[in-house]
Amino acid sequence: MAITESALHLLKNVVQESPADQTEVVLLTEDSSLTRFAGSAIHQHVAEKNQIVILRVVLGKRIAVVTTNIFQPSSLKQSLQRAVSLAKVQQPNDEFISLPGPKPIPEIESFSKNISRLTPNQKVRMIKNLLRQVKEKRCNASGAFSNGVVKLAVINSLGVEAYQEFSDLFLHLIVENEKSSGYASFVARDPDQLDIDALAQEAIGKTSKEEPMQIEPGEYEVILEPYAVSELMSFLGYLGFHALAVQEGRSFFVNRFGEKMVDEKVTIYDDGLDPGGLQVPFDFEGLPKKRVTFFERGVAKEVTYDSFTAGREGMDSTGHGLIAPNTVGPIPINLFMTGGESSLEAMVTSVQRGIYVTRFHYTNVVEPMNAVITGMTRDGTYLIERGEIKRPIKNLRFTESILKALSQVTAISKNRRICSEGTVYSRRFVTGTVAPAIKVDGFNFSGVSAL
Amino acid sequence: MKDLIQNILDLAKLKRVAYADIRVVRRQNEEIEVKNGKVEALIYDEDFGFGIRVLFQGAWGFACSSKVTKREMEAVFNKALKIAKASSRIRGKEILFPLTSPIKDRYQTPFSIDPFGVAPEMKLHFLLDADAILRKNNKVRISEAFLGSYKTEKTFASTEGSYIEQEIVECGAGIAATVIEGNEVQVRSYPNSFRGNFATQGYEWIEKLALPDKAEGIAEEASQLLSAKPCPSKVTTLILDSSQLALQIHESIGHPIELDRILGTEASYAGTSFLKPEMVGHLKYGSEKVNIFADATHPGGLGSFGYDDEGIKAQRVPIISQGILVNLLTSRETAHHLKKKSNGTMRADGWNRIPLIRMTNINLEPGEWTLEQMIADTEEGLFLTTNRSWSIDDKRINFQFGTEIGWEIKNGKLGEMVKNPTYTGITPHFWNSCDAIANREHWQMWGTPNCGKGEPGQIAHVGHGTAPARFRNVQVGVMKG
User: Of the candidates A93, A144, A364, which has its C-beta nearest B389's C-beta?
Assistant: First the structure.
């Protein structure tokens, strides 16, 4: 069992002793390490041990949440009392139906014992090897290499009991010379899957000794690497792929279900159980993950639900509850785009004049209903001419509707990769988006980064 | 606690580390979020733990834990030491970490009303009242009100003999009205977008914000935006209200002047900077109207504190003087690149993060104009307020911002409302085009409680004091390029 018997006993006691009508306890533990390097030296190497308990109590239709990281019986009791006190002064929420009841949780393996091999010394050895390869090419490297073990338990007074242990590691790498930079990243649950030489070569391969040229902003044919595609997918997940956005009328899906919204080559779904991604068997309400298809061959199909948004419509949760209180909605965290028949090489060959984009930087929403976002290209932006990658170009700002871009997809790669930024702020729960490379017939660049 | 801390410092000396510090941090947060008349979130969060940083064999190690016991502290110290030893095998340039005189002190942010002493039901009613007024406007589809209270108690101790206790109290609140019609979403917020305005003050700050008094006005503006004309696409004169200017300063001055970014240690995540240390004293960052201070001492500023997380006293230092870059945000380890001492900007997001160079209150000094004079002096242009979106490249050169609302300026008068306003520019070109800044009457502090940086991710609370300012020849209306 992933979480110790004594810890589970303590959590169950909290639920049993709660005077509330319904009580939910979520435990999220973390034992992690992160090593950062820049200028080809390690400048930060940190380790963390923490656990967070999230208590959600319900009195009638009044809900309150208390979190604490002091994992002692007396402290948990105090936190429970505080949650009940807060719920008493809370206003009833008539739209709340109930916390969920138990459902069978699929058995998946999300923990690799190999993770323990990533000791500080071992990671330093691996980074040293990586830096040696970069130095041989007279480049500098910066990046972060992190590994962790996360344990998640969800218990509620209606009988939900879900436990899982996760291992994870991620490494992202930027290689720079005087003229340009390149990027590569990796994420997995098993460190044996990490091919550090291949990762180094991928990032090195993106650099160029040529001076980047400046090109005029405008609409260009583009090839987007999976890193860039995953960013577009994540924005769609945040803006429109979930029930709360639809219920509030702010999703691009409103009144458009069943309509062909993007190119028929595009199928995007969320599946926590797909072994091609970073598997997660259940959500933060202890409900099993269901596959939800947002675009099926370009047609708008369905969205994700947690128990609250499902209760509003008399539906079942799709297992996309996030940590309470979740005010942003049941955002999908295991996104996939179906692969196509093409390859990156074939896509490049087919472009007369266009732009090759490795990744985006600092993207943000401009207009939510049309999924218009803006951001910059970064770490490997090239001009393609007559079927060949010609030379690096200065980074460009784009301002574009993701929906418009996906409606102009002309090729999708067969190969996909898991893309991940790694950790999020404050709580470790590494997720990934599985994306192919795509070719888009017209993509709008609105500015250039140059002094 | 003092004994537990001393035990670690004794252990550090025994192991002959070059330097070590320990921070014990307890944080309490209470956040209330109301949406459409219902309380979406009522949450109390408590967080407690310690972090130990050691400098050994020329490399840093850091480890931390939420289990605050003597045994765990010793284990964590040993882990930090082991990490430093491992890391020392890939050292860069020698770490120059100048020692300082020991400081023993206690600092507390001044406040009148402890926000944790105010009953939650009172806060709820305050928010529900404002929210109800927003929804009186029948075009408002989503009404939102937010109130957050934060208290951080931290003890810093180092092998140099420093022992500093701090208690920092912060508050913030805001409201927002969202209108949706067909394919269009418009938002108006008060006093600022993204949850409101925040300060190192007590509940008196919340009372001063008077959210219910402003609710009707912003709901009306939101509904008017639906029928407003789109922001034109052209090069024109731009007057930014102080809330938008605060974010403009944050992104295009605050981040580029962080010396750790300039030296490349954020390259793999947040990015670097177009600045170089040798530009200090020479670079014409802005017009001669532009004077910027980093001021960690400003009363009530969200980036105010007593000491940073390296034990350096809070300071007020000039960064840009009459348009010339004269200093950067520095730490003990980096300041020597400028042949200076640290200006005390190292802060960590809690016990489980190492300190990084963070903005304090990066303030634009007021000018001589009134806002009315500035508008009257502008033949043609746009007046924009309240941020809606932001984006800037990894070197902080090319930025693009969108605001919630704008008005045309024609012949020295505010004209028609415009929706979806956006503008873009190149950082030094933009700041050199500043030809007027409003006076102290228009100057106010804005708290930014969501400044992200570092890996693992850290959120800093920072502040920006600004008054409206005017910029010439700015590209506006870049929605579709």
Answer: A364
Confidence grade of residue A451 (pLDDT, cut at 50, 70, 90): low
CB pairs under 8 A between A and B: 273
Interface ipTM > 0.90 = yes
Kindly state the DSSP code that residue A178 receives in the 8-state scheme. Answer: S
Cα of A346 to nearest chain B Cα, Å: 29
Question: Any residues with CB less than 8 A from the CB of B373 and at least 6 apart, and which?
Answer: none
- Say if the Cβ atoms of A449 and B478 lie within 8 Å: no
Q: Residue A101 is part of which domain span?
A: 5-205
- Determine the residue of chain B that is closest to A54 in CA distance: B45
Q: What is the pLDDT of residues A411-438, one digit of tens each?
A: 999 999 999 977 655 688 999 999 999 9
Q: Is B479 on the interface with A (CB under 8 A)?
A: yes
Q: Are A187 and A234 within one domain?
A: no
* Chain position carrying tokens 């491992």: B86
Half-sphere exposure of A266 (CA within 13 A, CB side): 27
DSSP string, B152-189: EEEEEEETTS-EEEEEEEEEEEEEEEEEEETTEEEEEE
**What count of Cα atoms within 13 Å lies in the side-chain half-sphere of residue B266?**
23
Query: B152-164, pLDDT tens digit by residue?
Result: 999 999 999 999 9
User: What is the spatial distance between Cα B73 and Cα B64, in angstroms, rounded to a whole number?
Assistant: 8
Smallest CA–CA separation between B398 and chain A, in Å? 5
Cis peptide before B98 (omega within 30 of 0): no
Interface test with chain A among B27, B78, B90, by most A beta carbons within 10 Å: B90
Q: Which two tokens stand for residue B339?
A: 């042949």
Name which residue leads in pLDDT, B292 or A421: B292
Average pLDDT over residues B36-63: 94
In a domain, A211, yes or no: no
In this structure, what CATH number is given to the domain that contains residue A185? 3.30.2290.10
Kindly tell me if the per-residue pLDDT of B481 is higher than 60.
Answer: no
Distance from CA of B71 to the nearest CA of A (A): 14
- Chain B residues in contact with A399 by the CB 8 A cut-off are 400, 422, 478-481
Tokens of A316: 């079942």
DSSP string, B225-287: HHHSEEPP-EEEEEEE-HHHHHHHHIIIIITTTBHHHHTTTTTTTT---S--GGGTTT-B-S-
The structural architecture, per CATH, of the domain B2-227 is 2-Layer Sandwich (3.30)
Q: What would the pLDDT profile of A155-214 be if each residue is shown by its tens digit?
A: 999 999 999 999 999 999 999 998 999 999 999 999 999 999 999 999 999 999 999 999
